[in-house]
């Protein structure tokens, strides 16, 4: 089953997969990290957040950082795990940051746990 990235159905399935995974071990640096993400898509902007290394629908009031980027780049970074795409997007101006940019440095240095890798593989498989 492939669901369109950032569709309502995709968010619902990601939540279902995440909930089924239970307590996922995350690196210490990610445990308290909350970053809002605004993704520019053809159907309008989509709001999500990266909370303790997990994707959630909607923005969080306590996030000190917001990343704004196009949908294709968001998919490459957050679904395909292409970190070089993130750096290229930032350097080319496709990614804008509002707030505390130092929070993003944690993302670059944190190594995902085996639990996170397994969960991301499941999310990759359901994403069109």
From TrEMBL:
The SCP2 domain sits at 34-110
Q: Which SUPFAM superfamilies match?
A: SCP-like
One short Pfam name that applies is SCP2
State the protein's name.
SCP2 domain-containing protein
Q: Which organism is it from?
A: Alcanivorax nanhaiticus
